[in-house]
Amino acid sequence: RVFSGLVHVKNPHLDSMEEDVLYHLDLGTKTHNLPAMFGDVKFVCVGGSPNRMRAFAQFMHKELGLAGDGKDLADICAGTDRYAMYRAGPVLSISHGMGIPSISIMLHELIKLLHHAKCRDVTIIRIGTSGGLGVEAGSVVITDMAVDSSFQPRFEQVVLDDVVVRSTELDRDLVEELLTCSKEIPDLPTLIGHTMCTYDFYEGQGRLDGALCSFSSEKKLEYLKRAYDAGVRNIEMESTAFAALCRLCGLRGESPPAVSASSCAPQPCPGLGAGFARE
């Protein structure tokens, strides 16, 4: 990992391109002055829902005491319906959709945007909802390790016909900073734990209410118990890709999603109180 403060891209082919078009963000190096637009960005917050990220940008606009009421914040990606992007001072707020494929596309283009804009010392945080294991609904789980469905800290990406395995280690200092900040907010139960990332919302997360279900409720509960014993405290569908890309490109990254209660678990696991979030 590189600690120079710059955002790094690991693609030698970009240097020979006359123009880099960020298709899904409706931005480009020839059509936009990216350093002028984004060069002073210090924080990027990403989450699944466009409406949620607009509301977050408006909240940050108010918290930072910026001019105006923030209600008329413009969607920087208005030329596309794939993602939404808003800015409040040094904070960029971007939606990423649901699942690894969607967040991966957004992160590739976001990282290139920050690189072209010559941003330094950027911190990126994923916010949103998740399903909890053994934690109170409404809690915030600060991820110390993103793990796959086998509880391993890795992100497996098929590149051509090779399986590339990448580390999902997150910034430990940032984890502790967020935990310290949480203590200043009353009635916000916060804890540090592993976040499990799955490729699917239904079978992949052990739900019994999908169109397909190939396991018994007993098998589901046994799996969730093993996940809990392995340190997993919440489940979502983006964290391993998020952690791997941030680490490789020199970004301080963290994923502290909130836990939502759910009616999706008809037989809660004794002692776990498993909740699963609907974005």
Q: Low-confidence parts lasting 5 or more residues at pLDDT below 50? A: 261-279
Q: Any idea of the CATH class of the largest domain? A: Alpha Beta
Going by CATH, what is the homologous superfamily of the largest domain? Nucleoside phosphorylase domain
Which architecture name of the largest domain does CATH use?
Answer: 3-Layer(aba) Sandwich
| Secondary structure tally, helices | 6
What characterizes the major β-sheet? 5 strands, mixed
Strand content range: 15-25%
The average pLDDT score comes to 89
Percentage of residues assigned to helices: 25-40%
Radius of gyration: 19 Å
The ordered H/E elements are: EEHEHEEHEEEEEHEHEHEE
User: Under CATH, the topology of the largest domain is which?
Assistant: Rossmann fold
**N- and C-termini, Cα separation:** 32 Å
Describe this structure as you would to a colleague.
With 279 residues, the protein is α/β, with parallel strands linked by helices. It has helices at residues 34-38, 50-63, 100-116, 172-182, 217-229, 239-248, and strands at 21-22, 27-28, 43-47, 85-88, 91-95, 123-126, 129-132, 140-147, 154-159, 162-167, 190-197, 232-236, 252-254, 258-260. The chain contains six helices and 14 strands. The protein has a five-stranded mixed β-sheet, with helices on both faces. Strands 8-11-12-7-14 form a five-stranded mixed β-sheet. A two-stranded antiparallel ribbon has the order 1-2. Strand 11 (190-197), helix 5 and strand 12 form a beta-alpha-beta unit. It is globular, with a radius of gyration of 19 Å. It starts with 20 loop residues before the first strand and ends in a 19-residue tail after the last strand. Phosphate binds at residues 82, 126-129.
